[in-house]
Amino acid sequence: MNKQVKGKKVLITGASGGIGEYLAIHVAREGGIPILVARSAGKLDIIAEKIEAAFGVECPWYKADLSMDAEWKDVIDRICYEHGSIDGLINNAGIAVFDLVAESNWQDIDRMLSVNVKSLFRTTHQLLPHFLQKGEGHIVNIASQAGKIATPKSAVYSATKHAVIGFTNALRMEVEPKGVHVTSVNLGPVRTNFFQQADPTGSYEKSVDKIMLDPNRVARTVVGHLFTKQREINLPSWMDSGSKVYSIAPVSMEKLMQKQFNKK
């Protein structure tokens, strides 16, 4: 249990399924108020109804396309106006399209940058003054182990997550002395619908099936660390160990893991 979540308002992006849905469930289970954001109003409505019925907490939701900056800015303003002070933010929304750079579609590249990076910056930038004014709050950014180890066909996705990790690390140093916690969650493959867009062929998902993380476990771990001074959450731990080896000996690691790296 995490007693610090009770009564806290936590904004969760990408909350219409997968990790985001489970994050909302675990926040509500701990007595917090999850505020959900995603593109699918129908899915959000169903999730909110289930959460309210199961846990007896308010579960407001907002439809927004985070790739549309002006629209998302207006929705954030509306959320702040309607709910007053927000206590926590989980930047969970993210997309991927795995492809060789030379064969990539520019629209896919632009959308990954917009959702994975720009919208995360936007949300953080608009909510941060509220946290600093209160002298408390928690920003959790869902990054990826891909931000630490890039692989073929994920150049753009890895770059977006590398940006998230860099942003998170710098932001932490800026605001922790002022009472605001900042956490990076670096994940390996998770068993969600993420891969339906990232790799429609299903070949990569099949190749990593045995090591895929359970989204419920991921969400439970993240919520368990809400409003605590947790620098990073790395899952699975063995993959994080691999990223540390890679940072020391990248050439040897790329040669050794070439077959694995090319499974996308």
TrEMBL record:
Belongs to the short-chain dehydrogenases/reductases (SDR) family. This is Oxidoreductase. InterPro entries: NAD(P)-bd_dom_sf (IPR036291), Sc_DH/Rdtase_CS (IPR020904), SDR_fam (IPR002347). SUPFAM superfamilies: NAD(P)-binding Rossmann-fold domains (SSF51735). Pfam families: adh_short (PF00106). GO terms for molecular function: oxidoreductase activity. The keyword Chloroplast does not apply. Keywords: Oxidoreductase. One of its GO terms (cellular component) is membrane. PROSITE patterns: ADH_SHORT.
